[in-house]
Automatic annotation (TrEMBL):
GO terms for molecular function: heme binding; iron ion binding; methyltransferase activity; monooxygenase activity; oxidoreductase activity, acting on paired donors, with incorporation or reduction of molecular oxygen. It comes from Carex littledalei. Belongs to the cytochrome P450 family. GO terms for biological process: methylation. CDD domains: CYP51-like (cd11042). Keywords: Heme, Iron, Metal-binding, Methyltransferase, Monooxygenase, Oxidoreductase, Transferase. InterPro entries: CYP450_sterol_14alpha_dmase, Cyt_P450, Cyt_P450_CS, Cyt_P450_E_grp-IV, Cyt_P450_sf. This is Sterol 14-demethylase. The keyword Transport does not apply.
Length: 484
């Protein structure tokens, strides 16, 4: 009996060690059979509930902690769904370049887009309609149109800022978000904006954006107050924009704005955009502009006003341009504002408005980290990358947390930061933001006008850490003409 037991024990141990040996040989490549793909490390979390609490409360902190613990590739579980994070240029190339059939944005966004902008608008409709709508948008943001938008933006900014007293204190968070909404709306809806839009639209767009949290990406109709507010705002915006579209259609004049482009554009099957589509696309564009360019303008203010050195550099540049061109601001003159451009670029790098960009994985793929580890990301995972963290990696940027617009002048950093997917403020690859050039002309026009006409000084502390758009940025101002 003892003999039988000993033999059995020996056989079990022998099998165990043989399997171990075989596995290690396979890993060393001593056998020719295929290696088992390694899955990304999974962050332990409560079953079912997973990381949902942290994801809602502080998504960036959750991602940062896991990046420090696991490195550039890891999976977190959110209500049973695997979300695999890819952080850094080495592991995000496929994320940005894969076709829709492999990594799909539409699968993730369709319900969310419908909930915010209606049916058959961008990701809320079939791929072919979306492709053509992006072409219409491209036409509406062509260099020729951008030239026209500079003048529109300037007029709107002058008008808005004329309401400021000669001196005082303002909350630039509120002021710039309203101003950006109005200038973008003016470029999109032309003169009709005056009759129909008020600062109210800015808060409605804010409410619409309240329904854009990580939880909304996963469950756009989850019964939370933010989603109810979003639906109310959507209905109100729909009324406002429908009035504008109807009055434009019934009038005899035509404009050079984006609205006109959307009304006149024809799909390949000969159809025009319906009123609902024009409203949806216009709201989406206004939302993208307000949400991203608005916050970027505020971050630029915070960083510039805090950094005395860069603030004087942008003033010097404006003086020099005043000397050469007088008070004129146009598309070509904006092109000469290199210092201001760098200051905005650096504010966008640090204050990136896209917390997480995500896709649904339809086909498994592998990534190799910079340390040479290979991971397989399985079909069915949500794959995500957070630009705010990816833009602050210390092996890409020297002293990455520092606001240093001149870093783009250093050959070494310029070379590093211009490598694919090293600066993903505007995304990259297939879904690269089509509004980048528009955002820059909008921001540069507004900022050059502010710098030329006001003395500005930070009156509240610099917003360290996260900033969700509700805090104030108090600034003391005094009206004056910048002298040469
Ligand atoms: C500073 C301002 C802006 C920033 C930082 C920004 C950032 C981004 C980012 C990171 C993406 C990629 C999202 C992804 O990969 O999933 C994106 C996409 C997009 N952006 Fe922007 N954006 C800005 C302004 C604008 C403006 C002004 C417009 C419109 C006029 C716009 C329209 C879009 C559209 C339509 C897409 C989707 C492109 C696609 O899926 O192919 N953005 N933006």
């Amino acid at each position: 009996m003892v003999y039988i037991l000993l033999t059995a024990l020996f056989l079990i141990l022998a099998t165990f060690f043989f399997t171990k040996l075989l596995k290690s040989n396979l890993n060393l490549g001593l056998y020719n059979s295929r290696r088992e793909p390694t899955l990304p490390p999974v962050e332990k979390a409560w079953p079912l509930v997973g990381a949902i609490y942290m994801l809602i409360k502080d998504p960036l902190n959750l991602i940062k902690k896991n990046y420090q613990k696991h490195g550039s590739v890891f999976t977190i579980k959110v209500l049973g769904q695997n979300v695999t994070m890819l952080i850094g240029p080495e592991v995000s190339s496929h994320f940005y370049t894969a076709p829709e059939s492999e990594l799909s944005l539409a699968v993730l966004l369709d319900k969310l887009v419908v909930s915010m902008f209606g049916q058959n608008v961008a990701y809320g409709g079939p791929a072919e309609i979306r492709r053509q709508q992006f072409q219409f948008l491209k036409k509406g943001l062509s260099p020729q149109k951008l030239r026209y938008y500079v003048g529109q933006t300037l007029e709107e900014a002058q008008d808005y800022l004329s309401k400021w007293q000669d001196c005082g204190t303002v909350d630039l968070m509120h002021e710039l978000q309203c101003l950006i909404t109005l200038t973008c709306a003016r470029c999109m809806f032309g003169y009709n904006v005056r009759e129909n839009l008020s600062e109210d639209v800015s808060s409605l767009i804010c409410e619409l954006g309240g329904g854009l949290s990580p939880i909304s990406i996963l469950w756009p109709n989850f019964p939370i107050p933010a989603h109810y507010r979003r639906d109310r705002a959507k209905a109100k915006l729909n009324d406002i924009f429908s009035n504008i579209i109807n009055s434009r259609k019934s009038s005899l004049w035509s404009e050079e704005d984006l609205l006109q482009t959307l009304i006149e554009s024809v799909y390949t099957d000969g159809k025009y955009n319906t009123n609902e589509q024009v409203v949806g696309i216009a709201t989406a564009i206004l939302f993208a502009s307000k949400h991203s360019a608005g916050m970027t303008a505020v971050w630029t203010a915070a960083y510039l006003l805090q950094s005395k050195a860069y603030f004087s550099k942008v003033l010097e540049e404006q003086k020099e341009l005043l000397h050469r061109h007088g008070s004129k601001i146009d598309f070509d003159i904006l092109g000469e504002m290199d210092v201001l451009h760098r200051c905005i670029k650096e504010a966008i790098r640090l204050g990136s408005t896209a917390i997480i960009t995500a896709r649904y994985c339809r086909k498994a793929f592998t990534v190799t980290t910079k340390e040479g580890k290979e991971y397989m990301v399985p079909k069915g995972h949500i794959v995500a990358t957070p630009p705010t963290i990816a833009n602050r990696l210390d092996y890409v940027y020297k002293d990455p947390e520092r606001y240093d617009p001149d870093r783009y002048l250093s050959i070494e950093e310029k070379e590093m930061a211009s490598r694919p997917f090293s600066n993903v403020s505007f995304g990259g690859g297939r879904h690269l933001c089509p509004g980048e050039a528009f955002a820059y002309i909008n921001l540069k026009t507004i900022w050059s006008y502010l710098l030329r006409n006001f003395e500005l000084e930070l009156a509240s502390s610099f917003p360290e850490g996260k900033w969700n758009g509700k805090e104030k940025l108090l600034v003391r101002y005094k009206r004056r003409k910048l002298s040469i």
